[in-house]
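Justification of computing resources. Each target in the renewal requires a structure prediction run like the one illustrated here; the chain below, 295 residues long, is used simply to show the kind of job we budget for.
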Amino acid sequence: MDYAELRVLEAVARHGSMNRAAAELHTVQSNVTARIRALEEELGTRLFERNSRGVVLTAAGQRLLPYAIRLGALLREAQEAARDDGTPRGNLRIGALETTAALRLPPLLSAYARACPEVGLAVTTGTSAALIADVLDYRLDGAFVAGPVQHPDLVEDTVFREELMLVTAAGCRGIEDLDQQRALKIIVFRRGCSYRQRLEALLARRGIQTAEPLEFGSLEAILGCVAAGIGVTMLPRAVVQPAVCEGRVAAHALPPAQARADTVFIRRRESQPTSALTAMLAIARPLPPRMAAAE
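Resulting structure tokens:
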């Protein structure tokens, strides 16, 4: 078994198709099929099952796939380490929460682009749960997520501190106005969003029953629905302040323990940071440990 075979397995598993994997690997389908069959014969077990849509991993294939992904990531890291002379260059894949991307990243990315012009930076957004999984599975080099994460395979640095607020339609005077409502609608990002979890916990503590949440992928869609009186949400103060000033929504303060939200930057513990990633961490300016503990 060699990495060339494992690379083919990973590509087929990701695409669910021998043909699409062959296109990505710049080869023909028969070569991909032969590689998979050779690997199956060597291991003495089936790795894929065919269905009407293509192929899917067997249980044995699912157990093998993480090793293929890790080995590929390790080889890429070795190449980057050999080429890394201290000047930030190459590619850097970063993830961020939607709120962080809107509020914090523009000046940070502008400064990074000026300081590191040779780095090809790609940024994706998602929920904390999705971004953590992407970092652990080597799809991202690091990500800005809601903390604390406290995962044994990750290093995290607190970089931003937000004040969360309950956001309602403009006519709502506060959370007390919601106590008597039945089947209150919450307007949130998809499951895995830490702000959504905090909002659900806040309302549950007050005995407020909620209906099936409305899920959106953008801040503007969430704020638009809240402004229309469809439901409520929870977001950082700085994100909602423009809408509050325009009179579109109302933002209500929460108790300090419930309002504080740390944004942390996570990366894999076993991976040696490249110069490109080190420069990103330096520009993000993590809060000093004493300040993070005191605030």
